[in-house]
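Re: the 695-residue chain
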Amino acid sequence: MISFRKANSHAPLPHLRHRGSRFVHFILRGILFLALVVPAGIQPAWAVDTPTLLTPANFSTVTATGASGTLAAPPVAIPEFTWSAVAGATSYRIQFSQDIGFTTKIEFTTPHTRFIPTNVGQFSDGLWYWRVRVDAPTAGFYSEPFAFTKQWASDDNIPILQSPVANAVLDFFNAPAFSWTPVVGAASYRFQVSLNTDFTTFVINIQTLYTTYQPPNKVGNGEYYWRVVPLDPAGREGKPSETRRFIMRYNYVPELLEPADDSTPTFTPTFRWKAVRGAEKYELQYSTDPSFNTAVTTIETRNTTYTPPAAMPNDVNFYWRVRAKSGASISDWSEARSFIKKWYILPVLLTPTNNYQYTRFPVFSWTPVPGAAKYKIEIDKQLDFKDADYYYDFTANTTYILPNPIKAILLSGTTYWRVTPYDGNNNAGKHSETYSFEWIPSSNAPLQIYPLYYYPPNSFPPPDTAVAVQPYEDRTVPYPIFMWHRVTDISTGATVAPAYRIQVDDDPLFWSVDWQTDTENVVAAPTSSNPFNPVPNRDYYWRVCPLDALGGNCLTTSTPVAGPLWSQKWKTRFETSRALAPASGAPQLFRPLDAYEFVEMIPLFEWRAVQNATSYRIQISRNAEFTEIVDDAQVPYPAYAPTRVLAQREQHNRLDFGTYYWRVQANLGGGSSTAWSETRRFQVAAQRDCRKTNF
């Protein structure tokens, strides 16, 4: 028997009613054909019924959490869609659209009567329509559409802010600085910080997968607002959390260390302060204005010390302060301190010695001043240094010789001089004491060479006793060896004195001379027959005068003060431990070099000290075989200065010019000695007969 299902009320065939009889006849013939083909009792598989939609109910609201009056569809508020089965149907087509006419739609096919879309990105929150039809084996008609509202971004599915609490005061973003509860269906979160509650602009706007966030950078001090916005897997925003306020108040103020307040440092100070927690860097300001409105130098540094590269001037009030920076947060300024630089270390004048009466060629020297880049030397005939002959110059050294000899003549007589240090920024320090001397260009007083005038290194008066110069010079010498210039006539250049007398004493007045010798040479040193054993770390003074003959009297003068022509009194110290370490074996000769030539003088002979030597023997000969010995001496130190010249025409008329040989042997005590050293030779040459005719 053939049975017909009632036609779907939504799909009548009204168009057939108005067709011709031929079309009706065609349909009836088809039905007859089916009746003959289909066995009795078998119903044909026409799936023309439409499915009945079940869930979600029409006009349902679907949320992720199942809020009151809504359908729960975690995690993203996309429910399971169900409908009634249609007999014989093998596939269904389900469509979704946000307009009732399904002009734009999303559709899927499924063999089941249940379906959950897997592409979350296709379903935004809002009103949706859906319908289902049989798709196979034969397409049927769509069901009545149902409506539902997808509401993943619901008021009950928002992040609950946990920390910091509302109106919290923060100095750092400690981990975890910000935290909140998870949101059902959220794939990530947008963490937002703004300066205003409407979040039209952002200080921080970052996406994170986590429910905590620690900003990597600090923000500036002030009031801020923060919230969290959940994002679904498609990146669509859900309902934001509540808005909370926090106050960033980073205010770890550095504690200043030095220079101390109202201090008077000698040098341009190094600014120091204590480190503070969380400081990324520090801002230092120093100024001559206590309000820091003008003449301000601002330095940004990651250190807790700073030394200005340019020296500051003396006697100027400076003010300084520091504040810390942590990211964009800035602390309050520290207290302001003040200081005045007083670079008052004075040069100590050395030579010419004060009030010396017989200066011929002044060699100006003074002690170094820490922090000085150069020195200004002033020379004048008047103490006010304003005379017409006033002379000054700058030098980076602590010695000075006038470059113009004519100036020396103009300044002859009583002359005053002083020295002022200048720092690297051309700021002047305090000038030295003023020394005077009598400038006598025709003076025949000897001019000393070695040892240099001694001064204690790194020794400065209070408050600078701890100040040190690096590197520094220590003029202590190992052995008592003395040198000076030969005295010659200023007009003719002829040698004035046939001999000299040197005196050494630890008393600058020379009341009891510790050592003295007369020599025809311009260098002197003790011998075993005329010993001198200076005490270490004791000041000694030495002077030289020209003699009228070896063993005779000092030459004298009547101007400016009548008396013997003694040189200046130079201070010195001796310390044998400063010498080169003794060696073993025969002495190693130092000076003079082999085949060296000297003009009408005999050199100083030097060699390396020998271990356990008690004295040394030196021989000088006219031949290498030492069969014509001209000098044979015993000395306590590894140096020998003959007192008699071998060849000199003037004063002595000795004409033994030519080649000489020398060697040294160390005495080890108990009658034993080392082998002789190597033999070296030197030449003594005659000077051409020429004279200086002008100055």
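Residues 101 and 129 are 9 Å apart (CA to CA).
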